[in-house]
């Protein structure tokens, strides 16, 4: 397969098939696995229209994402950097993210097993309950972590444009502080149980479990992408909900700080009048 840029479209050529021209605006996700001959103009075409390009290899290396280079400096970025890195706001945000992950986990458990979900609701939920469910899956199926890593990379590709559209710095995180795409990784961590559910459904077929090295190819890869695409609208809605809550938390923090400043000013004024 070879991919070339043709104006606002991409031209895909495969041996034995007629070339296919596809308008770039109709392509909402680009995932490249393995060696695909491609002009650099194809990557910049997608980046210009706000579609990240995700690169995966067959060796399990960290994924790479191509984005449009943009200048930093929006007003919200400066406020975000200040709030996310300064106690007590940073600790408040950490607690909020852990709470939101717990909500995601409980929702996934209920979809996975309504009976187990009701039992946990009666007895109370702890993080250890969910880890106990995942532990045998990780131990008995080495391919589990490979697939979850791929799904996490695909979710990261979905999250980054939403963060940029909401005027957040995707690199300034709370839990993944100092990491590339730190805030995007924070959001992915909150929603990670959704990826576990996709992996569980993929590995229901025992023939797909086994040793390493391994990476889904052909029909398996198409199924992985299709499962993710089927959940895309739901995941986008969850990400947007998280960002709305995050904006509200920042506003509340600004309001608290303003109240403190006014109280301090009143005390100073009263002291001057004595």
Keywords summarizing the entry:
Four Helix Bundle (Hemerythrin (Met), subunit A), 274 residues, 2 domains, 9 helices, Ribosomal Protein L15, Chain: K, domain 2, 6 strands
SS-based structural class?
mainly alpha
Number of domains: 2
Span between termini: 83 Å
Order of helices and strands: EEEEHEEHHHHHHHH
What is the fold named in CATH at topology level of the largest domain? Four Helix Bundle (Hemerythrin (Met), subunit A)
Estimate the helix proportion, in percent: 55-70%
Principal-axis shape: flat
Mean pLDDT across every amino acid position? 85
What is the CATH architecture assignment of the largest domain? Up-down Bundle
Q: For the CA atoms, what is the radius of gyration?
A: 23 Å
Residues in β-strands, percent? 5-15%
Main β-sheet, in a few words?
3 strands, antiparallel
Major sheet: order of its strands?
A: 1-2-3
Top CATH class of the largest domain: Mainly Alpha
Question: How many DSSP helices?
Answer: 9
């Amino acid at each position: 397969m070879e991919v070339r840029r043709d104006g606002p479209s991409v031209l895909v050529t495969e041996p034995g098939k007629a070339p296919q021209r596809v308008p770039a605006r109709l392509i909402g996700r680009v995932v490249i696995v393995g060696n695909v001959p491609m002009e650099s103009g194809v990557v910049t075409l997608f980046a210009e229209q706000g579609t990240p390009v995700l690169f995966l290899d067959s060796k399990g290396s960290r994924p790479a994402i191509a984005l449009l280079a943009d200048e930093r400096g929006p007003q919200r970025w400066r406020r975000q950097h200040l709030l996310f890195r300064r106690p007590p706001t940073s600790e408040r945000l950490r607690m909020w993210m852990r709470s939101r992950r717990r909500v995601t986990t409980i929702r996934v458990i209920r979809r996975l097993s309504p009976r187990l979900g009701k039992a946990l609701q009666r007895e109370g939920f702890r993080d250890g309950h969910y880890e106990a469910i995942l532990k045998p899956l990780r131990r008995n199926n080495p391919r589990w972590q490979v697939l979850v890593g791929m799904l996490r990379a695909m979710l990261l590709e979905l999250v980054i444009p939403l963060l940029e559209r909401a005027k957040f710095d995707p690199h300034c995180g709370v839990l993944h502080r100092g990491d590339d795409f730190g805030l995007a990784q924070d959001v992915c961590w909150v929603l990670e149980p959704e990826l576990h559910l996709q992996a569980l459904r993929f590995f229901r077929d025992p023939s797909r479990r086994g040793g390493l090295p391994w990476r889904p190819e052909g029909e398996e890869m198409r199924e992985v992408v299709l499962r993710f695409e089927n959940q895309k609208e739901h995941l986008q809605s969850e990400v947007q909900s998280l960002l709305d809550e995050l904006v509200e938390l920042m506003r509340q923090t600004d309001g608290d700080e303003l109240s403190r400043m006014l109280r301090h000013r009143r005390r100073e004024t009263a002291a001057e009048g004595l």
